[in-house]
Amino acid sequence: MKSSELKFSLAVIAYPMLLGLAIWYAYWMNLEFGLGWKRYGIRPQEVEGLVGVLTSPFLHGDVSHLWNNTLPLMVLSAALFYFYRKISWQIIGFGVLLSGLLTWLIADNGNHIGASGLIYVMASFIFFKGILAKNYRLVALSLIVVFMYGSMIWYVFPIKAGISWEGHLSGAITGLLFAIVYRSTVPSDPKYVWESDNYDESKDPFMQHFDEEGNFISESELRRLEEE
């Protein structure tokens, strides 16, 4: 089983912020200069619409659409970079590609834009990965995702006009697929010194404070014994 030790790094904060800033910057550029970028969404079964597979996550219809995607994108990507830092960019990059292509294939019509497809990729991956891994930390993370974003499941169905349920469904399927493909990648709990294979109790400064019967020896007493 491949594993990586859980360790906080700047990437857990920096990369989610970068993703959030990227979609806001794209929205501002399009609005400020009237670039008409919304036309570069995913247009199903149209060859020209394939460009949207790469560009659609950065395009949003209005501020409300943008804001509703920003927080989940940053929260879920932060969890991804913390728990799965070695494969996080693979999940994001291939997730955008695969969910976008699936949307292009299964959707009937329309112009599909927004980062929600990627959000569903991450939410689905994190949830199913925790269940499949049977690691208590990852199961707990799965439960947190359910608590925070469990209502998202309804939007993989056509319950509201104007929402790309096909994109959501594609993202959820992609996340499940990745959870299966990367099922052997599980972060390990950090090991203590005494858990290592080459641990020598006689060289452990802390353990030297105990005699053979387990009685504690003070620092002054330990120095006295060493002098003798």
Provide structural commentary:
This protein is mainly alpha-helical and 228 residues long. The protein has 2 domains: 2-188, Rhomboid-like (Rhomboid-like fold, Up-down Bundle); 193-227, no CATH class. The protein contains 8 helices and 2 strands, in the order βαααααααβα. It has a two-stranded parallel ribbon. The radius of gyration is 24 Å and the shape is elongated. The termini are far apart.
- Provide a count of the helices: 8
Which CATH C-level class of the largest domain is it?
A: Mainly Alpha
Radius of gyration from the alpha-carbon trace, in angstroms = 24 Å
- Structural domain tally: 2
Q: How far from one another are the termini?
A: 50 Å
Approximate strand percentage: under 5%
Question: Can you tell me the CATH architecture of the largest domain?
Answer: Up-down Bundle
Low-confidence stretches: none
Quick take:
With 228 residues, this protein is mostly helical. Helices cover 55% and strands 4% of the residues.
Question: How does the SSE layout of this entry go?
Answer:
Elements lengths: L1 E4 L5 H23 L18 H4 L7 H21 L4 H19 L9 H18 L2 H14 L15 H17 L3 E4 L30 H9 L1
Parallel strand pairs: 1-2
Helix pairs in contact: 1-3, 3-5, 3-6, 4-5, 4-7, 5-6, 5-7
What keywords describe this structure?
elongated; 228 residues; Rhomboid-like fold; two-stranded parallel sheet; 2 domains; mainly alpha
